[in-house]
From TrEMBL:
<feature type="domain" description="SnoaL-like">
    <location>
        <begin position="6"/>
        <end position="131"/>
    </location>
</feature>
<dbReference type="Pfam" id="PF13577">
    <property type="entry name" value="SnoaL_4"/>
</dbReference>
<dbReference type="InterPro" id="IPR037401">
    <property type="entry name" value="SnoaL-like"/>
</dbReference>
<dbReference type="InterPro" id="IPR032710">
    <property type="entry name" value="NTF2-like_dom_sf"/>
</dbReference>
<protein>
    <submittedName>
        <fullName>Nuclear transport factor 2 family protein</fullName>
    </submittedName>
</protein>
Length: 160
């Protein structure tokens, strides 16, 4: 891979990641699914892996119903194994807002997304794996039960 080819592919992966974050925050589950491979694996501590972009999108649609989300991912470290496979680690911050029993709840989390990507036959890069490593989270008082399991992830924010 030449330096120019590497830069072009890096930008394609960065663009895919931005589209993924936008899809989650806009609740555009069709776009979300299309950005993930059929054999994509979403890891979540305390839960079985979710396999496939469509399955991950369907699960997120349920988890994020009624939740306003704001995702920020930055400072990626992307490494190519070859011209069609890469790994990435992105620093992240997410903010989630929802109501429970008429009371506003929130969660603000920080950490890293660990991901793998594959350039598929159609020339598009797709996610093949993601795991969220949470390093810190803050919650509203009423949200503490939802956010109690911060060994890495929990049901409301687990597969992002």
């Amino acid at each position: 891979m030449t330096d120019l080819e590497r830069l072009i592919e890096l930008e394609a992966i960065r663009d895919m990641k931005a589209r993924r974050d936008h899809a989650v925050d806009r609740k555009d589950w069709d776009t979300y699914a299309a950005l993930h491979s059929d054999d994509y694996v979403a890891m979540s501590i305390g839960a079985e892996p979710i396999v496939g972009g469509k399955a991950a999108a369907a699960q997120l649609a349920v988890q994020m119903a009624g939740v306003t989300t704001v995702h920020h991912c930055h400072t990626p470290v992307i490494e190519f194994q070859d011209s069609h496979n890469a790994t990435g680690v992105w620093a992240m911050e997410d903010n989630l807002f929802w109501y429970r029993n008429g009371e506003k709840q929130w969660l603000r989390g920080f950490g890293f997304y660990h991901e793998t990507y594959r350039k598929e036959a159609d020339g598009a890069w797709r996610f093949t794996y993601r795991k969220l490593e949470r390093t810190h989270a803050e919650t509203s008082p009423g949200a503490s039960a939802i956010a109690a399991d911060f060994s890495g992830e929990n049901t409301i924010i687990g597969i992002g």
